[in-house]
Amino acid sequence: MTAMFYIAAVVAVLSTLMVVTRHNLVHALLYLVVSLFAVAVVFYALGAPFVAALEVIVYAGAIMMLFLFAVMLLNVSAESPIRMRRAWLGPAILVAVLLAEVIYGITRQSQALGGVEVGPQAVSKALYGPYVLGVELASMLLLAALIGARHIAARARDEEEAAESMERRRAKTAGRTRPAEPDLAAQQTLSAEEGDA
Amino acid sequence: MLGLLWLIPALPAAGFVLLMLLNRRLSRPAAAWIGAGSVGLSALVALIVCGSFIVSPPAGDSYHQVLWTWFDVAGFAPTIGFYLDAVSVLWVLVITFVGFLIHLYSTEHMEHDEGFTRFFMYLNLFVASMLVLVLADNMLLLYLGWEGVGLCSYLLISFWQKDPQNVYSGRKAFIVTRVGDTALIAGLFLLFTQLRTLQIQPMLAAAQHSFVPGSAVAVAAALLILGGAVGKSAQVPLQTWLPDAMAGPSPVSALIHAATMVTAGVYLIARTNVLFTLAPDARLVVAIVGTVTLLIAGFSALVQHDLKRALAYSTISQIGYMFLALGVSGWEAGVFHFMTHAFFKALLFLAAGVIIEALADEHDIFKMGGLVRELPAVFWTFTIGAAALAALPFVTDGFYSKDLIIATSLGSVDGSLWFYVGSLVGAFITALYSFRLVFLVFFGERHTEVTRRPRWRQLVPLYALATLSIVGGLVWMPGWVSGFHPLEDFLDTALPQLDLTSRYAAFADGTGGAFVTILIVAVGIGIAWLLWIPWRKSTHAFSESPAVRPLAAYWLGGWGFDWVYERVFVRPVKWFAHAARNDLVDYVVGGIAWLNVAAWRALSAGQTGRLRAYVAVAGFGIVLVLAVVVLR
Amino acid sequence: MASVSLDHALVLAAILFAIGFAGLLTRRNLIVMLACIEIMLNAAGLAFVAAGARWGQADGQVMFLFVLAMAAAEVAVGLALAIRFRQSLKSLDIDDADEMKG
């Protein structure tokens, strides 16, 4: 168990470092998936199989997929590597200090873990017992997020369409027909519709 | 007859009001008639009133006429009242007669000036104020007249106001005399708090009663009054304004800065002689001031090349003689010299005005010369005036009054050898510079042509004043000549007698002292003739030589008084006014606003709009908080 | 099985959090910044689970669940906003959105 913990911990740290330093966006996100997997193993090593499963299913599964879809939708290009090197110094110092403080605060007292496995049954009992209100609130939160995200994204599409129709009108009144223009407009409306779905 | 006293100041005042109201609508002849006529009528009334006073003196040798009570506050009730005694009779006669002659002169002298009516308006106001000053029965009314003449002096010095230099001269005169005026009003406060009244005769009686002779309060009061007198009469240390006051027209210089206003200080001290008798230290200061001034101004007059500036320094010097006389308790001698000086100095200034006009506004005596044949009337009258100034023996009135002062400076119980020697040296210098003027202006080769000649309205005053300069001294013959001294007897009714009882009195008051005076004057005139007639070229060369030139320049600049005042007073005040030109409280208020804006700018600089910066700041905050928590 | 010590788990959480924070401060791409936020949330959740495992109770896991739900909601809205961001500013560089400066 402990060996599994430490190996998974190392993997998690290394892959998180990769996430943060890759300038290819998709690579970074994939490294994040790896990191999440490693953390799931850590959860299992700590005796929490339920959240380990949840980590994989929800976090690595749903949320990261959402990220990847968004990336594909937005057609993102990479950042330039040169600017990135100089920008690390300040944050590195700040974070190092922060880390030192937290570790100092943690390690003042050393405690062993119980080593007991807390399975899904116990979790569910807790969820539907004392924490049922929290569950309800969490579901309302998710509903709000769902509706909000839909609206925000839909507004985006509406505005884009409005901008395109403006351009088309301008092209017409200008008197000169640009053969490329209508095709581009049609293409954009097509992609917007796809995004909507 | 004496009841007409109030008309004397009222007539010129009415002239002033009339000229002020009708200013633009008056033609020149009308303005001249009103301006000169009001003073002429006043002179006539003065003749009647003073004549009746002299011929049949009223009881107590004084006449008091109260017009109304000025105001009444908590028991302090000064009146608008006039007090006539021997001293004020003398002053009134001089002011009205010499004033009238000068007004007559001005009708011709100023005839081409565009401010003709304004000129007479100011002159009338001046004469009215001066008459109020000398006739006032209480110190507050006297101070009213005092301020009035100061105002008119300023207005008239800067009469040609288009040239800013003239206005600066007027301003300088006003400010310097203001220093004296402040001392005077402080003295009035002191006198009122000690004696509870400012009516002159009751006040002096109370002073005699309650002031201990030689006590601090008596000396302080006397010194403060001296301060006021020093300012108005242009004595050291407040003499710097008078030479610059020559920026005004010549009639102004004649009337205000020779005959009347500058003698207001002499009048003041003569009026309050009781206070000075009670304060021997103050008397000593008066005499020292007089002696120092007469010497300093005499040397300065010797090197001037502006005709009117030379006469201005001469005025300062002669008033120094009057102060010297007053300081050694020679009250009557000082008053006598005032009278003679008014005649010959007004004459000199009026003649100078004619000369300057004749030579088309040329003031420099080295550019004059050869005018004996061109302006004979002016030559004779000017020479008579200069002779009176130099105290030419027996034939001029200046001799009698100056000799009396010289005798008093040694023979009076307060006299001393120092004063005697000083006054003799001064007499020598006076003879020297007055005939220097005569010889340089009228003799030698002509440098400037005569373009304008005087006519009767300018010449008649010159003749009249020249006559007075000759016969004016005969009213007080010295003891060793004859016993005819009606003026002395007349003044004895109002002033303490001359107390010539020092151990040199016999010599001073007798033929011995007179002989010394005559000798000095004669030698002075003789040397002046030598230096500027046959030896003129070598005199010029001598004054230009490198050894003498700095000394001459130093005397020319008035012994450096202006230089010192400029650096000690004027520049610091100007600097301070400039530094404080923004309200200092503004700095505080503005500072608060500035602080706010600076803080806003600093805080705005932190709003970069970039999310990462904000996150970094939040992270820094977390680090700090954790540090506090973890390290506890 | 031998048990893992609590501080090691917490230290792991701290390290992951720190890395995520550093990435948030450094990267300019909006999507990557959102990913770094996810890393931080994940690290916090790890701390909760470790704490719960210390006492052998389910509360830690329950907290992690709530954190998870919240992270999901936040990502959804965040990505929708990223789409709007991209649309109006034509790039995903966070430094381009500095109209609130001054």
Provide a short characterization of the protein structure.
Chain A is mainly α. Chain A has helices spanning 2-21, 25-45, 49-74, 81-87, 89-106, 120-127, 132-174, 180-196. In chain B, helix 1 packs antiparallel against helix 2 (28-55) and helix 15 runs antiparallel to helix 19.
Task: Give structural notes.
Chain A has helices at residues 2-21, 25-45, 49-74, 81-87, 89-106, 120-127, 132-174, 180-196. Mean pLDDT of chain A is 82; it is low at 188-197. In chain A, α1 (2-21) packs antiparallel against α2, α2 runs antiparallel to α3 (49-74) and α7 (132-174) runs antiparallel to α8. Chain A is mostly helical. Chain A folds into two domains: 1-80, Four Helix Bundle (Hemerythrin (Met), subunit A) (Up-down Bundle); 131-197. The longest helix of chain A has 43 residues, at 132-174. Chain B has 632 residues and is mostly helical. Chain B folds into three domains: 1-137; 138-544, no CATH class; 582-630. Helix content of chain B is 71%, strand content 2%. Chain B has a two-stranded antiparallel sheet with strand order 1-2. Chain C has 102 residues and is mostly helical. Chain C has a single domain, classed as Helix Hairpins (Orthogonal Bundle). Chain C has three helices and no strands. Chain C has helices at residues 6-26, 30-55, 59-89. In chain C, α1 (6-26) runs antiparallel to α2. Chain C is elongated. In chain C, 63% of the residues are buried. Classes of the chains: A mainly alpha (197), B mainly alpha (632), C mainly alpha (102). Chains A and C meet through α1, α2, α3, α4 and α5 of A and α1, α2 and α3 of C.
Which SSEs are present, and which pair or pack?
The complex is a heterotrimer of chains A (197), B (632) and C (102).
Chain A: H1 2-21, H2 25-45, H3 49-74, H4 81-87, H5 89-106, H6 120-127, H7 132-174, H8 180-196
Helix pairs in contact in A: 1-2, 2-3, 7-8
Chain B: H1 7-21, H2 28-55, E1 63-69, E2 79-84, H3 86-109, H4 116-135, H5 139-157, H6 164-195, H7 200-210, H8 216-232, H9 241-244, H10 250-259, H11 264-271, H12 273-277, H13 280-302, H14 307-327, H15 331-358, H16 376-390, H17 397-411, H18 417-442, H19 456-471, H20 486-492, H21 505-509, H22 511-532, H23 536-544, H24 549-556, H25 561-579, H26 584-605, H27 611-630
Antiparallel strand pairs in B: 1-2
Helix pairs in contact in B: 1-2, 1-4, 2-3, 2-4, 3-4, 3-10, 3-15, 3-19, 4-5, 5-6, 5-10, 6-8, 8-11, 8-13, 10-15, 13-14, 13-18, 13-24, 14-15, 14-17, 14-18, 15-16, 15-17, 15-19, 16-18, 16-19, 17-18, 18-22
Chain C: H1 6-26, H2 30-55, H3 59-89
